């Protein structure tokens, strides 16, 4: 039987919990390795974080303003402090934009960034999944640098 | 304003989409590296997959049967074929168990595996997040082995 199992506030809190953990992973990297270290030809963790930043607020803005402008992952953030400041700037913007999306809108198709036409709920679940995916990669970078990552279940 | 944004069927489909991708990541590993390769002292991808298998069906069974028995990650699966068969065995069981959980039950606290007392919806979101997290680690293992992982957005 069909059941409604998640509200907008619950998903927002869930995402912000993940974002708090991702912030801790950024902090765990030494400055140099954050911008230079990678494995197997992959991107640095700084580049992955810039991708996350260029999706979260711009993606929600696209949904709320019904704009299909493309994304730009190449943000001018050059230090760990730059990344953390951008991360913290995004936090209240995400809260504000997310809560402007109506129940009906979550169900409607939207051509995110002019490229990804899916129901809004799927687009937003993708934001979260993509963050968990890339952060998992960051965990391997940290472990291979002999740095203990934060506990996965800590979300405050 | 409060909005219901996800149904049980949608979350189940979302999870099974992720499971289809994780299956493809298992397939991408060479037999030997699946069971022997790791980075930074982490577990092998086979061990991570055994963890996922020991959470999904046993976790849902615990919820449905209201049993707080502990988990056992140490499954007797010795080959890639063993892992893939166990993965495929779990697929219809997950569908069946998941749909037995009522709307009210998703909101109730449950002491999963006798250790993790959270609302059922949070326990199940954790199953999915944990899978995405560990699979992201598998992507790094594959890249460092010079093997192209499947596309992250392929979920069929």
UniProtKB/TrEMBL annotation, chains A, B:
InterPro entries: DinB, DinB/YfiT-like
Presence of the UniProt keyword Metal-binding in the record: yes
UniProt: a divalent metal cation binding residues: 134
Swiss-Prot/TrEMBL keywords: Metal-binding
Pfam families xref list: DinB
Origin superkingdom: Bacteria
UniProt GO molecular function: metal ion binding
Family listed: Belongs to the DinB family.
Protein name: Uncharacterized damage-inducible protein DinB (Forms a four-helix bundle)
Species of origin: Paenimyroides ummariense
